[in-house]
Amino acid sequence: TVLIPTWVDGDLVAVEKLEAHQRGLCHKAVSVFVMAGDDLLIQRRALCKYHTPGLWANTCCTHPNWGEDPETCAHRRLSEELGITGLNLSHRDRVEYRADVGGGLVEHEVVDIFIARLSACIPLDPNPEEVMETRWISLNRLNLALATHPARYTPWLRIYMQEHAAQIFA
Known about the structure:
By secondary structure, the protein is of the alpha+beta class.
Protein backbone atom coordinates (compact mmCIF):
# COMPACT_ATOMS: atom_id res chain seq x y z
CA THR A 1 0.00 0.00 0.00
CA VAL A 2 1.41 3.37 -1.04
CA LEU A 3 0.35 6.30 1.15
CA ILE A 4 0.68 9.82 -0.26
CA PRO A 5 0.35 13.26 1.38
CA THR A 6 -3.25 14.32 0.69
CA TRP A 7 -5.47 17.14 1.87
CA VAL A 8 -8.74 15.98 3.45
CA ASP A 9 -11.01 18.61 5.02
CA GLY A 10 -8.09 21.06 5.09
CA ASP A 11 -5.69 18.71 6.88
CA LEU A 12 -2.67 17.04 5.28
CA VAL A 13 -2.99 13.30 5.92
CA ALA A 14 -1.63 10.04 4.48
CA VAL A 15 -4.11 8.47 2.05
CA GLU A 16 -3.69 5.37 -0.11
CA LYS A 17 -2.68 6.48 -3.62
CA LEU A 18 -5.47 4.69 -5.50
CA GLU A 19 -8.10 6.06 -3.08
CA ALA A 20 -6.79 9.61 -3.58
CA HIS A 21 -7.19 9.18 -7.35
CA GLN A 22 -10.60 7.51 -7.09
CA ARG A 23 -11.92 10.34 -4.88
CA GLY A 24 -10.11 13.12 -6.78
CA LEU A 25 -8.48 14.33 -3.57
CA CYS A 26 -5.84 17.05 -3.77
CA HIS A 27 -2.41 15.56 -3.10
CA LYS A 28 1.29 16.40 -3.35
CA ALA A 29 3.29 15.49 -6.44
CA VAL A 30 6.64 16.09 -8.13
CA SER A 31 7.41 16.46 -11.85
CA VAL A 32 10.85 16.58 -13.46
CA PHE A 33 11.90 17.87 -16.88
CA VAL A 34 15.41 16.91 -18.09
CA MET A 35 16.71 18.98 -20.99
CA ALA A 36 19.78 18.29 -23.16
CA GLY A 37 20.29 21.44 -25.18
CA ASP A 38 16.91 22.14 -26.80
CA ASP A 39 15.64 18.58 -26.35
CA LEU A 40 13.38 17.34 -23.55
CA LEU A 41 13.54 13.76 -22.31
CA ILE A 42 10.03 12.30 -22.33
CA GLN A 43 8.90 8.81 -21.38
CA ARG A 44 6.10 6.53 -22.46
CA ARG A 45 4.42 5.02 -19.43
CA ALA A 46 4.52 1.24 -19.06
CA LEU A 47 1.38 -0.66 -20.07
CA CYS A 48 1.07 -2.08 -16.53
CA LYS A 49 0.49 1.39 -14.99
CA TYR A 50 -2.98 1.61 -13.45
CA HIS A 51 -3.76 4.89 -15.19
CA THR A 52 -2.63 6.46 -18.47
CA PRO A 53 -0.68 3.35 -19.58
CA GLY A 54 1.18 3.73 -22.86
CA LEU A 55 0.90 7.53 -22.89
CA TRP A 56 3.84 9.90 -23.18
CA ALA A 57 4.71 12.05 -20.16
CA ASN A 58 7.45 14.41 -19.01
CA THR A 59 10.79 12.95 -17.87
CA CYS A 60 9.32 11.63 -14.63
CA CYS A 61 6.63 12.35 -12.09
CA THR A 62 5.50 10.84 -8.82
CA HIS A 63 4.08 11.42 -5.39
CA PRO A 64 6.42 12.08 -2.46
CA ASN A 65 6.41 9.70 0.46
CA TRP A 66 5.05 11.05 3.73
CA GLY A 67 7.56 13.60 5.05
CA GLU A 68 9.79 13.37 1.96
CA ASP A 69 11.26 16.64 0.65
CA PRO A 70 10.19 17.35 -2.97
CA GLU A 71 13.76 17.56 -4.32
CA THR A 72 14.74 14.31 -2.58
CA CYS A 73 11.64 12.73 -4.11
CA ALA A 74 12.58 14.02 -7.59
CA HIS A 75 16.08 12.51 -7.34
CA ARG A 76 14.67 9.21 -6.03
CA ARG A 77 12.18 8.93 -8.86
CA LEU A 78 14.71 9.78 -11.60
CA SER A 79 16.79 6.87 -10.31
CA GLU A 80 13.85 4.45 -9.90
CA GLU A 81 12.22 5.15 -13.27
CA LEU A 82 15.17 5.94 -15.56
CA GLY A 83 18.40 5.01 -13.75
CA ILE A 84 19.45 8.69 -13.71
CA THR A 85 21.50 9.92 -10.75
CA GLY A 86 23.53 12.98 -9.82
CA LEU A 87 21.62 15.70 -11.71
CA ASN A 88 21.55 19.31 -10.54
CA LEU A 89 17.83 20.04 -10.22
CA SER A 90 16.39 23.54 -10.17
CA HIS A 91 12.96 24.15 -8.61
CA ARG A 92 10.89 26.01 -11.22
CA ASP A 93 7.39 26.35 -9.83
CA ARG A 94 4.60 24.88 -7.75
CA VAL A 95 1.34 24.48 -9.67
CA GLU A 96 -2.03 22.93 -9.02
CA TYR A 97 -4.07 21.11 -11.62
CA ARG A 98 -6.99 18.72 -11.82
CA ALA A 99 -7.39 16.24 -14.70
CA ASP A 100 -9.50 13.21 -15.51
CA VAL A 101 -7.02 10.40 -16.27
CA GLY A 102 -9.62 7.80 -17.30
CA GLY A 103 -11.19 4.82 -15.58
CA GLY A 104 -12.98 7.05 -13.09
CA LEU A 105 -9.66 8.34 -11.75
CA VAL A 106 -8.69 11.98 -11.21
CA GLU A 107 -5.28 13.54 -10.67
CA HIS A 108 -5.73 16.62 -8.47
CA GLU A 109 -2.19 17.61 -7.66
CA VAL A 110 -0.12 20.36 -6.13
CA VAL A 111 3.11 19.76 -8.03
CA ASP A 112 6.66 20.88 -7.34
CA ILE A 113 8.29 21.14 -10.77
CA PHE A 114 12.03 20.68 -11.27
CA ILE A 115 14.25 21.03 -14.32
CA ALA A 116 17.76 19.78 -15.06
CA ARG A 117 19.76 21.22 -17.96
CA LEU A 118 22.46 19.02 -19.49
CA SER A 119 24.99 19.73 -22.22
CA ALA A 120 24.26 16.38 -23.94
CA CYS A 121 21.99 13.36 -23.76
CA ILE A 122 22.90 10.90 -21.03
CA PRO A 123 22.66 7.10 -20.80
CA LEU A 124 19.37 5.78 -19.45
CA ASP A 125 18.39 2.53 -17.76
CA PRO A 126 14.56 2.58 -17.82
CA ASN A 127 12.67 0.39 -15.36
CA PRO A 128 10.30 -1.66 -17.58
CA GLU A 129 7.64 -1.68 -14.83
CA GLU A 130 7.51 2.12 -15.11
CA VAL A 131 8.71 3.09 -18.59
CA MET A 132 8.20 1.35 -21.95
CA GLU A 133 10.04 3.89 -24.14
CA THR A 134 11.99 7.14 -23.94
CA ARG A 135 12.64 9.89 -26.47
CA TRP A 136 14.52 13.18 -26.67
CA ILE A 137 12.32 15.72 -28.46
CA SER A 138 12.60 19.45 -29.12
CA LEU A 139 10.00 21.62 -27.42
CA ASN A 140 8.79 22.80 -30.85
CA ARG A 141 8.29 19.22 -32.07
CA LEU A 142 6.60 18.28 -28.78
CA ASN A 143 4.18 21.21 -29.04
CA LEU A 144 3.35 20.21 -32.63
CA ALA A 145 2.79 16.58 -31.54
CA LEU A 146 0.58 17.71 -28.64
CA ALA A 147 -1.51 19.79 -31.06
CA THR A 148 -1.88 17.05 -33.67
CA HIS A 149 -2.14 13.92 -31.46
CA PRO A 150 -3.10 15.05 -27.92
CA ALA A 151 -4.51 11.63 -26.94
CA ARG A 152 -0.99 10.15 -27.12
CA TYR A 153 0.11 12.31 -24.16
CA THR A 154 -0.82 12.39 -20.49
CA PRO A 155 -3.25 15.09 -19.40
CA TRP A 156 -0.65 16.61 -17.09
CA LEU A 157 1.97 16.96 -19.83
CA ARG A 158 -0.60 18.75 -21.99
CA ILE A 159 -1.43 21.06 -19.05
CA TYR A 160 2.23 21.76 -18.28
CA MET A 161 3.02 22.61 -21.89
CA GLN A 162 -0.12 24.70 -22.50
CA GLU A 163 -0.31 26.57 -19.18
CA HIS A 164 3.09 26.47 -17.45
CA ALA A 165 5.81 26.21 -20.12
CA ALA A 166 7.01 29.79 -19.54
CA GLN A 167 7.72 29.06 -15.86
CA ILE A 168 9.21 25.61 -16.48
CA PHE A 169 11.55 26.41 -19.35
CA ALA A 170 12.40 30.10 -18.69
